[in-house]
Design goal:
Blueprint lengths: L6 H11 L3 E3 L1 H10 L4 E4 L3 H6 L6 E2 L5 H8 L7 E4 L4 H12 L5 E4 L2 H7 L10
Parallel strand pairs: 1-5, 2-3, 2-4, 4-5
Helix pairs in contact: 1-5
């Protein structure tokens, strides 16, 4: 069941989505299968990441991504693919990274929920 988000939150997400690039779950899976070079960043909370994640993802939560991204990815041209639970937090994070000068940022619409619903591989704590 999808979360009910507040109207003001949805408004800022929609504004951010007008300024960023988005991709689908299928795009990301296809890029992985093709061996394309990109950095997959999970912007969910630590507890969400610990419960399960997309294989190869690096964790950098929405709460700290702007503070810590330059240490992890100093190259402003690196391809960054961000995801969260459904595509809202990653859109906000992508918008902020673009404001910081990152030129190749993409938010995965559908997020981890969409990835799971598509039956794609997931890493869990046991793996």
């Amino acid at each position: 069941m999808a979360k009910q988000h507040s109207p003001r939150f949805l408004q800022i997400v929609q504004q951010a989505k007008q300024r960023i690039r988005e991709c689908t779950v299928e795009d990301v899976h296809r890029w992985q299968q093709a061996g394309e070079s990109f950095i997959l960043i999970d912007v969910r909370e630590e507890s969400e990441f610990a419960a399960g994640r997309i294989p190869g993802a690096t964790h950098l939560s929405k709460g700290v991504i702007e503070r810590d991204i330059e240490k992890l990815v100093p190259d402003l041209d690196a391809k960054l693919v961000l995801y969260c639970g459904g595509g809202y937090r990653s859109a906000l994070a992508a918008d902020n990274l673009q404001k910081m000068g990152y030129r190749n940022v993409v938010s995965m619409d559908g997020g981890f929920r969409g990835w799971k619903e598509a039956g794609l591989p997931i890493e869990s704590p046991a793996t």
